[in-house]
């Protein structure tokens, strides 16, 4: 046993210090980025915000709206081959730049993505998603996937430390998903005691990834557009959102009415709700590591997207970054003990 004594920080612990800017308007800020990848020969251009691969967020309907704004959706892994085929009949080639097919690490998972990709070879992105990216089994599955799909862009996670980011990149990942426990419906930290404050995880993992020519996704912990800006400022290449995109028309989850108010169900993919739905319940050797909540119904997701993008452009104007790519170079974080005046907050 040993203790690391340096303090690790989350989004709530910092704010971004403003700097002199030559920008006259938020409209001058470009949020689009261009990426080349470590292993795949593919390139990508778009706004690097992602919908999480949860069945109450990463739906086909969500992907249609986000792709129209050049944002990305990691489609959840529970759609069938027939559902994939039916959906992709009606999309343009450009649409494939903004979606990933998600998978677990079982051999049935490997076979399933094989069937979907064989039927839809224009799919470019594969997201290998597990709660614990530190297992040797996960690394071996990643290597197997890279051998099978040498030209695809492979996203792999989740991890929170630099040495594991490096291992996953060397094993075949192009993009590493970073985050253990920060999500709004994740209970891993209280069930296991394991985790890493998200801001510090991004800083450490971005440094490791960029040194090898790889990329990272900050996955979880964003409550506000300001948190999204902090994630980019800390060095993340992409930011993945779950709770912020839940509760919309395009989100999955049951629509519920309580005392005349509308809500949508939202739950973690390691929750009892998800495991009852997909694997017949929580196995006796494990515990649920997610919660189920009712999110106030928010209507169309485009309104939330425009609010997030507007906040991000505003961040860039406060620090003089004309492009999102410049934000991390112009970010100085200051430690704080409070974020906002909450006198009129419910």
UniProtKB/TrEMBL annotation:
Under Enzyme Commission nomenclature, its number is 1.7.1.7
User: InterPro entries per the record?
Assistant: Aldolase_TIM, GMP_reductase, GMPR, IMP_DH/GMP_Rdtase_CS, IMP_DH_GMPRt
* Record GO terms (molecular function): GMP reductase activity
User: What's in the keyword line of the UniProt record?
Assistant: Metal-binding, NADP, Oxidoreductase, Potassium
* Subunit record text: Homotetramer.
* PANTHER family, A to Z: GMP REDUCTASE
What name does the UniProt record give this protein?
GMP reductase
């Amino acid at each position: 046993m040993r203790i690391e004594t340096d303090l690790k920080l989350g989004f709530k612990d910092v704010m971004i210090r403003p700097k002199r800017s030559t920008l006259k308007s938020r409209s001058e800020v470009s949020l689009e980025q261009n990426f080349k990848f470590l292993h795949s020969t593919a390139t990508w251009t778009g706004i690097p915000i992602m919908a999480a691969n949860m069945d109450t967020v990463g739906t086909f309907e969500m992907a249609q709206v986000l792709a129209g704004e050049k944002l990305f959706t990691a489609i959840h892994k529970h759609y069938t081959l027939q559902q994939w085929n039916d959906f992709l009949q009606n999309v343009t080639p450009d649409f494939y730049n903004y979606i990933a097919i998600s998978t677990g690490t079982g051999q049935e998972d490997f076979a399933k993505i094989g069937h979907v990709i064989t039927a839809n070879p224009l799919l470019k992105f594969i997201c290998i998603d597990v709660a614990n990216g530190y297992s040797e089994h996960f690394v071996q599955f990643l290597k197997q996937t890279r051998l099978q799909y040498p030209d695809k862009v492979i996203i792999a996670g989740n991890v929170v430390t630099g040495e594991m980011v490096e291992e996953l990149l060397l094993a075949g990942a192009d993009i590493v998903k970073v985050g253990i426990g920060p999500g709004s419906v994740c209970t891993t930290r209280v069930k296991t005691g394991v985790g890493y404050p998200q801001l510090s995880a991004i800083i450490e993992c971005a440094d490791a990834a960029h040194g090898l020519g790889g990329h990272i996704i900050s996955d979880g912990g964003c409550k506000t557009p300001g948190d999204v800006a902090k994630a980019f400022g800390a060095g993340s290449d992409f930011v993945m959102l779950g709770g912020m995109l839940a509760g919309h028309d395009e989100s999955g989850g049951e629509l519920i009415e309580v005392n005349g108010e509308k809500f949508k169900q939202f739950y973690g993919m390691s929750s009892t709700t998800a495991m009852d739905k997909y694997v017949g319940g929580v196995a006796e050797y494990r515990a649920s590591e997610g919660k189920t909540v009712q999110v106030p119904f928010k209507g169309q997701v485009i309104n939330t997207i425009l609010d997030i993008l507007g906040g991000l452009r505003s961040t860039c104007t406060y620090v003089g970054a004309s492009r999102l790519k410049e934000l991390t170079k112009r970010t100085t974080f200051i430690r704080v003990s409070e974020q906002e005046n909450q006198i009129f907050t419910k």
